[in-house]
Amino acid sequence: MENTQEGLPTDQEFHHDLVSSLPLEEGMSPVRLRKYQGVWMSEYFLVGTMNAQRYFKSRPTDILLASYPKSGTTWLKALAFSTMTRTRHSFGCHPLHHLNPHECVPLLDEIAGSLESLSEIDAASDPRLISTHLPFSLLPESIKSCGCRLIYVCREPKDTLVSRWHYHGKIVTNMGKSEVIPFEKMFDMFCDDIMPSGSIWEHALGYWNEKTQTPGRVLFLKYEEMLEDPTGTLTRLAEFMGCPFTEEELRVGVPAEIVSLCSFGNLRDLAVQQNRRISPGGIMTTESYYRKGAAGDWRNHLSPEMAEKLDRITAKKLQGTGLTLGRPVSETTAMDA
Ligand code: A3P
User: Fold this and answer.
1) Domain Sulfotransferase, which positions (predicted)?
2) Residue 337 domain flag
């Protein structure tokens, strides 16, 4: 599949050269952002993105878990993986006991950085569970056109920002650096759509539009609703993936077992025991994906002015779309705090 004609650059060399020619933003150091096809993206995932766009062949049976980073991806991966494979694994001896959810469901944007790993996905049997942080506009054409199912999870923008900032702190520490970006600076970049995977609003809208234009193709989940009703979410997830719980499974409590296996406390405890470096790039640890696992932590980080500014942007960007993300400050009460 690669161009190997003598004297000409290979596609891989071409992709690497293309990445270094793209507009660069270093305000989120050590993460370097490049503007690719109109979207700010982490440089680390760009060759993978280009390879995926060029070579990845989606199948109608694929199930793609899509999310903006820090929206509940880890949780969704754990739930989807354990639901889909539940007849193969007992809960007492489950792959999640020794693997991080990110090792159970590959991130296309990262794995496609190596053509060898991409061909491993190619060879995997149906149905394939794959994840991505790509905005809908950047998805490989084969995903857009093959009709495979998409499961999208989104989150309150204020909490997503806070989660990202803490995660960024872990990247800085794990890379042995000391300069953590001030929260106020990341806030400004977030408002200006200068984040890995671009604008949180455009990201959610891309999948929302696909949901409205192609009924039945997209299951649209919200992190806050998952927290409120994990079993209800799991039931919808299983039905959407084509493996609904049977009467017998309901009777013996299989959904409750999966919810408990994938709960924040359980996954975090397992991650602490696992205590290993994992992706991206072996920088993060199994623990890096767990922090508070709650809604509303923005109150501990954003001033009232910042919260109102973000709410205003959210309202403006989503106006007339039918999509809502989180709850504006004006609608929350002291009871929510
Ligand atoms: P916080 O930083 O607010 O705690 P992602 O998986 O997309 O990277 O998102 C990470 C966020 O999801 C983090 O939020 C993390 O704590 C939370 N999270 C991870 N696993 C979870 C789980 N099983 N249940 C609820 N939240 C979870």
Assistant:
1) 60-322
2) no
